[in-house]
């Protein structure tokens, strides 16, 4: 395990974090330790802060609202390094966040009454993007085994119907923490090819991979013959802890597809803010060192958490995430499984995300955000263990 002696992130303390601007730290009473909303209790990278200060010395009138060309080039170069080659600026469009991209894809690529397939458990806005506007959720559970969470390809194949139009993927997966392997992605791509599906791949967590994860392959790179039907969504907010500055991108080898998403949300999408553009540019040009350091700390936290769970709560099924700073615990065997989130809140003074929001059948699961100081993580896990044991 990494030696974390006197790491600056150890300084994260409730007194500093509980400011009125933070949803995570003000939603519950002060005696509750919040380990739910997916942002980090760490300061933003210094190069980003410096660039934002400098940006504020100039006009903050309309920035490049039709798509900042510098950021487009930087992003295309970055995605190429990730293995997504052949993108053009016309195939990139900025958004005020990644969730708007999920909704835009649903609006543009399907009609009310169409089925949209995804795997569950899943980040809740996938579900609401499907059902909020009259589309039909076709949810296929992941398989849980000793090896972790895997795709059930037979179940996915069996669930496709003539009304299924779109497949929504989360890669790496929130909340299971999986980086899907090339073989798994090929199977998903083949399913989409066979049934003529569009695919949206939310790859927002891609830069939060641990060294022991499988090789990361962007979904759109897997089957070139499918790329014309794939939209990739990404953004800087998970890797660089900048969710409050809202920006994302929808990307495709098929600019026409991107134009369709733009058209479906024309006038209601809003543009990425001037500061968010500066922030993402700087994350891409000068954020690598901060990200590497942060990942080291997160990996050490993940390993600490895994050791804690094996030692203190060995009966709680959990597999270490390959990416993300999110841990997904199965507490369905607990006597209070029916209201586990509330039980942990009331009895444990610990705020976690409730599994029931991640899909039907996930009552009894909880998600814990371990992007905090080692001390707060230890405190949170101690509260969890105490409450679970009763
Ligand atoms: C998979 C995934 N997509 C999108 C989001 C949110 O993105 P944004 O805040 O840019 O809308 C999150 C946040 O946790 C997420 O986990």
TrEMBL record:
SUPFAM superfamilies: PLP-dependent transferases. Gene3D superfamilies: Aspartate Aminotransferase, domain 1 (3.90.1150.10), Type I PLP-dependent aspartate aminotransferase-like (Major domain) (3.40.640.10). Keywords: Aminotransferase, Lyase, Pyridoxal phosphate, Transferase. GO terms for molecular function: transaminase activity. InterPro entries: Aminotransferase_I/II_large, C-S_lyase_PatB-like, Class-II_PLP-Dep_Aminotrans, PyrdxlP-dep_Trfase, PyrdxlP-dep_Trfase_major, PyrdxlP-dep_Trfase_small. Its cofactor is pyridoxal 5'-phosphate. It is an enzyme of class 4 (lyase). Its EC number is 4.4.1.13. Residues 61-384 form the Aminotransferase class I/classII large domain. Belongs to the class-II pyridoxal-phosphate-dependent aminotransferase family. MalY/PatB cystathionine beta-lyase subfamily. This is cysteine-S-conjugate beta-lyase.
């Amino acid at each position: 395990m990494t030696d974390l002696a006197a790491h600056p992130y150890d300084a994260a303390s409730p007194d500093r974090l509980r400011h009125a601007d933070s949803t995570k730290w003000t939603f519950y009473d002060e005696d509750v330790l919040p380990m739910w909303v997916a942002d980090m209790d760490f300061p933003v990278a210094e190069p980003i802060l410096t660039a934002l200060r400098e940006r504020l010395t100039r006009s903050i009138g309309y920035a490049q609202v039709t798509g900042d060309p510098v950021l487009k080039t930087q992003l295309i170069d970055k995605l190429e390094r990730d293995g997504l080659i052949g993108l053009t600026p016309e195939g990139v469009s900025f958004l005020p966040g990644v969730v708007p991209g999920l909704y835009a894809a649903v609006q543009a690529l399907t009609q009310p009454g169409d089925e949209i397939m995804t795997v569950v458990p899943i980040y809740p806005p996938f579900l609401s993007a499907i059902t909020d506007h009259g589309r039909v959720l076709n949810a296929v559970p992941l398989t849980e085994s000793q090896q972790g969470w895997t795709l059930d390809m037979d179940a996915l194949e069996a669930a496709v119907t003539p009304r299924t139009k779109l497949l929504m993927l989360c890669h790496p997966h929130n909340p299971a923490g999986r980086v899907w392997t090339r073989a798994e992605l090929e199977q998903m791509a083949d399913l989409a090819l066979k049934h003529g599906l569009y695919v949206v791949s939310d790859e927002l967590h891609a830069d939060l991979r641990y060294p022991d994860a499988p090789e990361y392959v962007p979904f759109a790179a897997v089957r070139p013959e499918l790329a014309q039907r794939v939209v990739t969504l990404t953004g800087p907010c998970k890797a660089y802890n900048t969710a409050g500055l809202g920006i994302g991108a929808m990307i495709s080898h098929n600019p026409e597809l991107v134009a369709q998403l733009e058209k479906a949300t024309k006038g209601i999408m809003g543009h990425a803010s001037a500061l968010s553009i500066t922030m993402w540019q700087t994350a891409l040009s000068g954020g690598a060192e901060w990200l590497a350091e942060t990942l080291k700390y997160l990996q050490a936290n993940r390993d600490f958490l895994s050791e804690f769970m094996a030692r203190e709560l060995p009966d709680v099924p959990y597999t270490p995430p390959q990416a993300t700073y999110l841990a997904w615990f199965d507490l369905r065997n607990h006597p209070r499984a029916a209201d586990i989130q509330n039980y942990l809140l009331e009895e444990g003074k610990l705020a976690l995300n409730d599994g029931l929001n991640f899909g039907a059948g996930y009552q009894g699961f909880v998600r814990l955000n371990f992007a905090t100081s080692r001390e707060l993580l230890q405190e949170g896990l101690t509260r969890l263990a105490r409450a679970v044991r009763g």
